Amino acid sequence: MKKQVLVLTLGLFSILFTQAQTTVAVSDIQFVSATDLANCKDLSSYDGQTITTVGVVMHDGGLTEVASGSVNGGYRPGVHILDTAANGAMGSFGGLQIHGVYENGAQSQPVSTLNNLVAGM
């Protein structure tokens, strides 16, 4: 009986204190208020945070690199994601362009996660 009460109590605590990560719309990620822009603050309110968004990958991640003078080799991996909330309609804040970052301080090892994305995901 004690084991059943313990399991039930632990189960209830795990349910009560669990926080699911919510998804953030592309338009919310990209929106910057006019006041912030007037004060030369053009960063997203999500800058520095890990977030989850929903969209369609427009091309395989390993197929596109963006020219960059700040990295070894001159190219950074990138991918485009179309916001599905707008049902594929073009317009302001309709998608994201995501650039890869580098894992080590020498900026010579690109993150491979973008290369794993497949068009249509």
Walkthrough of the structure:
With 121 residues, the protein is an alpha+beta fold. The protein has one domain (21-116). It is built from 3 helices and 4 strands. Strands 1, 2, 3 and 4 form a 4-stranded antiparallel beta sheet that branches. Strand 2 (65-67) and strand 3 form a beta hairpin.
Shape: extended
Largest sheet entry: 4 strands, antiparallel
Question: Could you tell me the strand content as a percent range?
Answer: 15-25%
Mean pLDDT: 74
Poorly predicted segments: none
Structural class comes to alpha+beta
Output the number of helix runs. 3
Specify the helix fraction band. 10-25%
Quick rundown:
This protein is an alpha+beta fold. It has helices spanning 2-16, 26-30, 34-38; strands at 55-57, 65-67, 75-83, 95-99.
Topology:
Blueprint: H1 2-16, H2 26-30, H3 34-38, E1 55-57, E2 65-67, E3 75-83, E4 95-99
Antiparallel strand pairs: 1-3, 2-3, 3-4
Structural features:
121 residues; alpha+beta; four-stranded antiparallel β-sheet; 3 helices; 4 strands; extended
